[in-house]
Amino acid sequence: MTEHTDVQVRPGVESDLQALTELYNHYVMETPITFDTRVFTAEERRPWLLSHPEDGPYRLRVAADADSQEILGYATSSPYRAKPAYATSVETTVYVAPRAARRGVGTLLYQALFAALSGEDLHRAYAGIAQPNEASVRLHERFGFRYVGTYREVGRKFGRYWDVAWYEKPL
Q1: Is 58 exposed, middle or buried (0-12, 13-18, 19+ CB in 10 A)?
Q2: Which residues, other chains included, contact 85 with Cβ-Cβ below 8 Å and sequence gap of 6+?
Q3: Distances in Å between the alpha carbon of 57 and those of 12, 71, 126, 143, 163?
Q4: Which three-class secondary structure state does DSSP give residue 39?
Q5: Are 22 and 40 in contact (CB under 8 A)?
Q6: Helix 105-117 crosses helix 134-142 at what angle (to 10 degrees)?
Q7: 98 near 72, Cβ under 8 Å?
Q8: If DSSP codes are grouped into helix, strand and coil, which group holds residue 12?
Q9: Mean pLDDT of the chain
Q10: Own/partner pairs for 50-54, CB < 8 Å, 24+ apart?
C-alpha cells in the first residue's frame, strides 16, 4: 500500500468482527495503548461492534486494503460517559494494524469518522492517549485536538503504571 487509493474506508460490518478483534487483541497483549489486559473472542466483542451503527453519534469506520479487503485499522466514536449530560460528548480512538503504520491510515480513518459525525448533535470529542505515544499525539493534534491534562499513573499494565494524556476537540 503506497497510495491512499489503495485503502477503502467504510462503516464496520459484522463480517469484520473477527479481524477487528484480532487487531484489538494485538494492542491488548503487546502495548499499553489499551488498558484491557486479556484477549477477547469475537463473540465477546460483538456487543462493542453492535454499539456502533452506521448512523448516530457512535460510529465505527474501518480501513481495508482495496484489493484484498484485509483490515488495516479502525476508528470509533463512543460515549464519553454514561450520564445523560455527557450525551453531546464522544470519546474517539484509532487502532492501526502494525503492518499499516506510518502510511496515513489513521489520518484516513479520522477524516472519515469526523465527516460522518459532522451532522450529529455533538459538542466535543475527547481522546485519552497512554503515554508515551508521539504518533497518536501528532495525529490528534493534526485533527484539532488540544491537550487538556494528564491522569498520572492511572493504569497498571505489564508491571508498571502508565499516564494518560487527555485531548479535546470542538465539534
Answers
A1: middle
A2: none
A3: 14, 23, 13, 18, 28
A4: coil
A5: no
A6: 40
A7: no
A8: coil
A9: 95
A10: 51/78, 52/12, 52/76, 52/77, 52/78, 54/11
Q: Other CB atoms closer than 10 Å to residue 147's CB: what's the count?
A: 13
Whole-angstrom Cα distance, residue 60 to residue 163?
A: 26
Q: How far is 121 from 131, CA to CA, in rounded Å?
A: 31
Quick check: helix, strand or coil at residue 152?
strand
Q: For residue 45, give the 3-state DSSP assignment.
A: helix
In the chain, which residue ranges form alpha helices assigned H by DSSP? 17-30, 42-50, 105-117, 134-142
Position 131 scores a pLDDT of 98
Strand runs labelled E in the chain: 7-11, 60-65, 71-79, 89-96, 124-130, 146-157, 160-170
The x, y and z cell numbers of residue 57, run together, are 453519534
3 state SS of 19 = helix
Tell me the pLDDT tens digit for each residue of 59-80.
Answer: 999 999 999 999 999 999 999 9
pTM listed for this prediction: 0.94
Give the strand order in the sheet containing 7-11: 7-11, 60-65, 71-79, 89-96, 124-130, 160-170, 146-157
Distance CA 13, CA 72 (A): 14
